[in-house]
Amino acid sequence: MHLNKYWILEEIEKLFVEFGSDAINPYKIIKYSDIDLIETNLGNKTLGQTIRNKRCYVILINKNLSYSMKRFVLWHEIAHVRLHKGISTAAFRANNLNRMICGIEAEANMFAIEMLTRTIDEQDLSYMSQFQIIEYLGLPHNLEHLVLQH
Amino acid sequence: MNTYEIIKDLAKEKGISIRQLEINFGYSNGYIGSWKRQTPNSNELSRIADYFDVSVDYLLGRTEKKRYYDLTEKEKKDIAIQAEKLLEGLDSDAETNYYGEPLDDEDKEKLYDAIQLALSLTKVKAKKKFTPKKYRQ
Description:
The structure holds two protein chains of two kinds.
Chain A: H1 5-19, H2 26-32, E1 36-40, E2 46-53, E3 56-62, H3 67-83, E4 92-93, H4 103-117, H5 122-125, H6 130-137
Helix pairs in contact in A: 1-4, 2-3, 3-4
Chain B: H1 3-14, H2 18-25, H3 42-52, H4 56-59, H5 73-88, H6 105-130
């Protein structure tokens, strides 16, 4: 997979400049950027979705998810809001987690995982492999290839 | 409907009596009842409008909308249509799409409800945010 990871890293730095240390918490970012969050039952296949209408954003998230998965989906949707302004974003489906997905979904996934890895202590991170990081974050194993090596 | 009846309905919605309302505002017993015959002055009207979070126009019976950002019947219908279009992946006004992935009917219904909720939320929010000040009352 050939993704421009420097672009995504730049966007993440911007996020830290804008929100400071609060940038690590997705709920705070959603609150400060004036985005509505609805936790509801979206069925089994849909994990989350961003809707933009009349210049306002709403993030829908499936309430049946685990804690770690919820954070991941939230970051994924925030990535859509911040990286893909004005692009139609497909609903985040369960089978979007594997490799055969279109570019913006992959970028959003990478953004999400990178933001989650920032919560791990840097010292610990230097010993961990990609697989261990995914295990630590409690995410599905097929996301392993998206973890960036530092 | 005159002002007294409108206030009575609002109080009923909130679950308080007219007497309790009078006590809250520091009016004497039966003072609000006197508005059956005469309209209250502007100061009293604006206090009551603030208390119930409605516009003064609504208290006077000049408009059906309680607040400037309330959705009208037509707008609600429009939102239902827009949500349907979004689900079919036809609408280009608001952003979301699906790349031809099959959804079973149950999931579709849940997603439809969620999208409709999201669209009405954004509509109200846009009205609150972007209505020019001179049109807010």
